[in-house]
């Protein structure tokens, strides 16, 4: 049976924003992220991180450094992330994987049995909201990271705007019947 999913932006949403996060030592997972992810799992959601990582193409860090960061995030979140999807390309590369395009979400839908009609995109940037809309997902903007600044630039309202991921998850879980898997 297809499961709904939560597609999470990484920087500014799940972890503190660091310009071109390239070292595990600089990684700071928000204090509420572990419980938020656990609550989503308990409500039957698959959880995917979808992240633009143009620092790879800009040669600011190696792809292996990004994988090390993802391994540490997975470690700190008790292994609850189903998969990490990333775009290593420059903004003008014309790829389908870079948000606000939907390539990463489409890849997850191919790799996992996902009910996109009951899924959400949660992020701190205008392009995260646009990605969700483009993929026909429900959307949530968190005001951490770039969220407060990007709120004023939105072309349309997401389903919710919340102070942080913890609050978004509380609202999502309250509005969604628990999925039996």
Mind explaining what this structure looks like?
The protein is α/β, with parallel strands linked by helices and 181 residues long. The chain has one domain: HAD superfamily/HAD-like (Rossmann fold), CATH 3.40.50.1000. 32% of the residues lie in helices and 15% in strands. The chain has six helices and six strands, in the order βαβαβαβαβαβα. The protein has helices at residues 33-42, 63-76, 103-111, 126-134, 147-151, 165-175; strands spanning 5-8, 46-52, 83-87, 120-123, 138-142, 160-162. It has a six-stranded parallel β-sheet. The chain is globular and about 45 Å long. The mean pLDDT is 96.
Brief summary of the model shown:
The protein has helices at 33-42, 63-76, 103-111, 126-134, 147-151, 165-175; strands spanning 5-8, 46-52, 83-87, 120-123, 138-142, 160-162. By secondary structure, the protein is an alpha/beta fold.
């Amino acid at each position: 049976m297809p499961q709904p999913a939560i597609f999470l932006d990484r920087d500014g949403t799940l972890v503190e924003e660091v310009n071109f996060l390239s070292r595990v030592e600089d990684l700071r997972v928000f204090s509420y992220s572990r419980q938020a992810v656990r609550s989503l799992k308990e409500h039957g959601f698959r959880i995917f991180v979808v992240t633009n990582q143009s620092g790879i193409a800009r040669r600011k860090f190696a792809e292996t450094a990004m994988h090390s960061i993802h391994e540490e995030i997975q470690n700190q979140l008790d292994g609850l992330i189903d998969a990490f999807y990333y775009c290593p390309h420059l903004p003008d590369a014309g790829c389908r994987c870079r948000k606000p395009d939907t390539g990463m979400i489409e890849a997850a839908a191919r790799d996992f049995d996902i009910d996109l009609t009951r899924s959400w995109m949660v992020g701190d940037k205008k392009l995260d909201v646009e990605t969700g809309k483009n993929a026909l997902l429900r959307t949530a903007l968190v005001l951490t990271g770039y969220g407060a600044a990007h709120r004023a630039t939105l072309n349309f309202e997401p389903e919710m705007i919340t102070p942080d991921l913890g609050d978004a998850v509380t609202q999502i879980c309250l509005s969604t019947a628990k999925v039996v898997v």
